């Protein structure tokens, strides 16, 4: 009995020691882990950052890592497909103010790596056969709510997003040019040759919101400068105009901002008071670009 | 040859005349005397210069180019480079007035920028002049009150109610401007002055769309002489509006990802059904042929 007790005691002691050793190992590793995470301790300096789902959050500087997402094609493709929730972008072009300065075209071509003969946006001279007068009309992709180009794309390369923007993904585009044929506004253009500065852009990750780098054998089109809109900035063409031709904004807010004066006005009032129209409404494409008619100059 | 020379002289003369006319057109523009003497109530510091730079790049670069680069747009009259001597020779008040009121092709920025934002632009333009020394108004014995504001919306009369206080005392005759903050800029709702109770009413268009709860971002500025205050609030003031995605529902251009499940099932059942029927017939014919060979 005594022996048995002694044995029992020693076994118990052994188990106790084992338990202590185990507990101390767990505690030690926990401390070690704690030590590791201490290197990531909050510094107290907070910054505001925008998350992928468009939420403004405040994080500590110490918790930030250098962003490599912007170089990640998969992330850029996902972001480009989804668009900006809660927005519906519209453009208003005041034809009475256009003086063919072509600053918009230059800004567009330099942002989207386009050769001088390629246009996402083109300023056309329109002639009025009755009055024998002419006016300038900037013409861009109309970002239709019922886009014929999207219907005909066989590979889902061109698509419409939740914020109303029609984009093209040149990673998917096979160069069939069905969309070019389907667009009633001739808004699309094709990279027949190697794009401008293609050697310099070789290592740049493709961002469909900017549609850069351009690729030979693919279609390219106006993107409403979706990359700028993501940062709350106006499109390249809109902010480059010296004559106050372009208004740009969110239809959901019913507010549009003039690219030159930065004056923000009600979209519905602007359209109603100036007898705005859309191009080829009879086709039922429902464009997101409105035109304010050219007015005869006073005197 | 002689004729050619004559033409050259005429063209040269015309060009000189145009240049002189343009310079004259620009120097002709004089601000009213009292505006000319107006001084900035703020001391131009780095923050103001930075703010001014953002405003300048957004609203002025397209015509005036980058200051000091002489890359302004060739227009008639030429907009000129703000870092140039002709610009810098003006008083602060004159610059402020010209930016605010505009003339001819120079847009009027009165509605786009509040006074303090206009002074930011003047501060930015002055930052290109090394010899500039800011002239400050005499502030001796002047007490600048610190304003506090409270915002509310009276839905019975569709008015934004702004109360302006300083040390809990209502402030009369304070100029109040209210804006709705849009994605790319601020929309002026209206301007008003506070009454003897320190309250100002600004009309709100009931058709203005807000979010699902009718909330919008409102920014209100209150100014009186050198006293200034600004407050921003996300408040219920507009028509509740449901925001729809531009691709929701079905369209002729919808992709198969957006097709409803019943359509997908019907499609696949029909396709596989047809294939099954064809194979069934082919196998049946094969079996008949086999049976005939065996018989």
TrEMBL record, chain A:
<dbReference type="GO" id="GO:0046872">
    <property type="term" value="F:metal ion binding"/>
</dbReference>
<dbReference type="InterPro" id="IPR017900">
    <property type="entry name" value="4Fe4S_Fe_S_CS"/>
</dbReference>
<protein>
    <submittedName>
        <fullName>Hydrogenase</fullName>
    </submittedName>
</protein>
<dbReference type="InterPro" id="IPR006311">
    <property type="entry name" value="TAT_signal"/>
</dbReference>
<dbReference type="GO" id="GO:0051539">
    <property type="term" value="F:4 iron, 4 sulfur cluster binding"/>
</dbReference>
<dbReference type="InterPro" id="IPR017896">
    <property type="entry name" value="4Fe4S_Fe-S-bd"/>
</dbReference>
<feature type="domain" description="4Fe-4S ferredoxin-type">
    <location>
        <begin position="132"/>
        <end position="163"/>
    </location>
</feature>
<feature type="domain" description="4Fe-4S ferredoxin-type">
    <location>
        <begin position="164"/>
        <end position="193"/>
    </location>
</feature>
<keyword id="KW-0479">Metal-binding</keyword>
<keyword id="KW-0411">Iron-sulfur</keyword>
<dbReference type="InterPro" id="IPR019546">
    <property type="entry name" value="TAT_signal_bac_arc"/>
</dbReference>
<keyword id="KW-0004">4Fe-4S</keyword>
<keyword id="KW-0408">Iron</keyword>
<dbReference type="InterPro" id="IPR050954">
    <property type="entry name" value="ET_IronSulfur_Cluster-Binding"/>
</dbReference>
<dbReference type="Pfam" id="PF13247">
    <property type="entry name" value="Fer4_11"/>
</dbReference>
UniProtKB/TrEMBL annotation, chain B:
<protein>
    <recommendedName>
        <fullName>Cytochrome c domain-containing protein</fullName>
    </recommendedName>
</protein>
<feature type="signal peptide">
    <location>
        <begin position="1"/>
        <end position="25"/>
    </location>
</feature>
<keyword id="KW-0408">Iron</keyword>
<dbReference type="GO" id="GO:0046872">
    <property type="term" value="F:metal ion binding"/>
</dbReference>
<keyword id="KW-0472">Membrane</keyword>
<dbReference type="GO" id="GO:0020037">
    <property type="term" value="F:heme binding"/>
</dbReference>
<feature type="domain" description="Cytochrome c">
    <location>
        <begin position="47"/>
        <end position="129"/>
    </location>
</feature>
<dbReference type="InterPro" id="IPR009056">
    <property type="entry name" value="Cyt_c-like_dom"/>
</dbReference>
<keyword id="KW-0732">Signal</keyword>
<dbReference type="Pfam" id="PF13442">
    <property type="entry name" value="Cytochrome_CBB3"/>
</dbReference>
<keyword id="KW-1133">Transmembrane helix</keyword>
<keyword id="KW-0479">Metal-binding</keyword>
<keyword id="KW-0349">Heme</keyword>
<dbReference type="GO" id="GO:0009055">
    <property type="term" value="F:electron transfer activity"/>
</dbReference>
<feature type="transmembrane region" description="Helical">
    <location>
        <begin position="261"/>
        <end position="285"/>
    </location>
</feature>
<dbReference type="InterPro" id="IPR036909">
    <property type="entry name" value="Cyt_c-like_dom_sf"/>
</dbReference>
<keyword id="KW-0812">Transmembrane</keyword>
């Amino acid at each position: 009995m005594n022996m048995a007790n002694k044995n029992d005691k020693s076994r118990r002691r052994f188990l106790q020691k084992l338990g202590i050793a185990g507990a101390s190992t767990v505690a030690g590793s926990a401390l070690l882990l704690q030590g590791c995470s201490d290197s990531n301790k909050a510094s107290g300096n907070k910054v505001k950052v925008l998350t992928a789902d468009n939420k403004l959050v405040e994080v500590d500087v110490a918790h930030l890592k250098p962003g490599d997402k912007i170089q990640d094609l998969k992330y850029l493709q996902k972001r480009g497909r989804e668009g900006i929730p809660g927005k519906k972008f519209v453009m208003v072009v005041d034809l009475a103010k256009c003086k063919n300065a072509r600053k918009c075209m230059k800004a567009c071509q330099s942002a989207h790596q386009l050769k001088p003969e390629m246009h996402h946006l083109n300023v056309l001279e329109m002639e009025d056969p009755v009055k024998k007068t002419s006016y300038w009309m900037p013409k861009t992709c109309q970002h239709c709510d019922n886009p014929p180009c999207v219907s005909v794309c066989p590979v889902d390369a061109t698509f419409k997003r939740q914020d109303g923007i029609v984009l093209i993904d040149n990673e998917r585009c096979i160069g069939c040019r069905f969309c070019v044929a389907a667009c009633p506004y001739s808004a699309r253009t094709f990279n027949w040759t190697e794009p401008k500065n293609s050697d310099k852009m070789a290592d740049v990750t493709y961002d469909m919101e900017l549609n850069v780098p351009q690729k030979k054998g693919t279609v390219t089109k106006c993107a409403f400068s979706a990359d700028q809109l993501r940062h709350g900035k106006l499109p390249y063409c809109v902010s480059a105009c010296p004559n106050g031709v372009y208004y740009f904004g969110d239809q959901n807010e019913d507010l549009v901002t003039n690219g030159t004066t930065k004056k923000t006005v009600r979209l519905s009032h602007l359209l109603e008071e100036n007898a705005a129209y859309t191009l080829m409404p009879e086709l039922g494409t429902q464009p997101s670009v409105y035109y304010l008619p050219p007015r005869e100059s006073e005197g | 040859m002689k004729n050619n020379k004559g033409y050259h002289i005429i063209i040269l003369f015309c060009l000189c005349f145009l240049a002189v006319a343009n310079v004259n057109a620009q120097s002709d523009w004089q601000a009213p005397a009292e505006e000319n003497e107006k001084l900035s109530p703020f001391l131009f510091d780095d923050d103001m210069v930075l703010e001014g730079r953002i405003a300048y790049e957004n609203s002025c670069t397209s015509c005036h180019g980058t200051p000091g680069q002489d890359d302004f747009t060739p227009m008639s009259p030429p907009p000129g480079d703000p870092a140039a001597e002709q610009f810098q020779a003006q008083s602060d008040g004159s610059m402020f007035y010209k930016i605010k009121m505009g003339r001819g092709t120079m847009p009027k920025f009165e509605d786009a920028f509040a006074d303090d934002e206009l002074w930011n632009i003047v501060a930015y333009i002055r930052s290109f002049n090394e010899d500039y020394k800011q002239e400050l108004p005499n502030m001796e014995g002047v007490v600048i009150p610190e304003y506090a504001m409270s915002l509310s919306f009276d839905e019975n009369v569709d008015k934004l109610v702004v109360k302006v206080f300083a040390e809990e005392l209502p402030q009369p005759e304070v100029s109040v401007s209210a804006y709705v903050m849009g994605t790319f800029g601020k929309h002026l709702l209206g301007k008003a002055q506070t009454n003897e109770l320190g309250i100002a009413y600004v009309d709100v268009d009931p058709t203005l769309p807000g979010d699902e709860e009718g909330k919008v971002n409102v920014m209100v500025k209150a100014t009186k002489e050198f006293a200034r205050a600004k407050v921003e609030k996300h408040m219920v003031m507009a028509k509740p509006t449901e925001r729809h995605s531009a691709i929701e529902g079905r369209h002729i251009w919808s992709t198969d990802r957006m097709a409803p499940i019943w359509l997908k099932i019907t499609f696949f059942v029909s396709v596989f059904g047809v294939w099954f029927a064809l194979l069934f017939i082919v196998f049946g014919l094969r079996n008949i042929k086999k049976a005939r060979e065996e018989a």
